[in-house]
Specification:
Blueprint: H1 2-16, H2 20-33, H3 36-44, H4 53-65, H5 71-97, H6 105-116, H7 121-125, H8 132-158
Length: about 160
């Protein structure tokens, strides 16, 4: 579910981006991520979505933010939170799912998401310091939602679903 919503988040961000420099960066990022939800489903034999309204709401929150936040906040949310989370999660999961497979979904993301976490930093570096409290608040909210997603995924794993 999260992987599918991640794709939707990137599509939405691309659709509403108004900054020409970021639009190019986002397009390249989208190209690198395109189809990874299918890759994950195929690699692990997933045939159905989970039925978890809490997880769905948390995932949908990220998509909705693409229509509400400005570009600096989107950089924080997508790259400093989601992609950093993907790197950490990928590193942990790669050792469990396919410790020796370089083309495994989690191994791929452990490496790629490190680069993806730096996208848009040039945009943030150009902002005045007065913007940082607002961006910190965005970062805190996004990590709270990301933590909720991880907690729900962990609950599903513990229950053996």
């Amino acid at each position: 579910m999260w992987s599918s919503h991640f794709q939707r988040m990137l599509y939405a961000r691309q659709a509403v981006c108004v900054d020409p420099l970021l639009e190019r960066d986002y397009e390249e990022h989208l190209g690198e991520e395109y189809g990874h939800d299918r890759m994950l489903r195929d690699a692990h034999g997933v045939t159905a979505e989970v039925d978890d309204p809490v997880l769905e709401a948390a995932c949908t929150w990220f998509v909705a933010q693409m229509f509400q936040l400005d570009e600096a906040q989107k950089v924080v949310l997508v790259h400093m939170v989601v992609e950093t989370s993907g790197r950490i999660f990928g590193e942990a999961a790669a050792g469990i799912h396919a410790p020796n497979a370089a083309d495994d979904f989690f191994t791929l993301h452990a490496a790629a998401d490190d680069d993806h976490s730096r996208i848009g930093r040039h945009r943030l570096a150009a902002l005045p310091p007065s913007e940082f409290p607002r961006l910190r608040a965005t970062c805190r909210r996004a990590w709270s939602q990301m933590d909720l997603i991880h907690e729900r995924i962990a609950a599903w794993i513990r229950e053996g679903r």
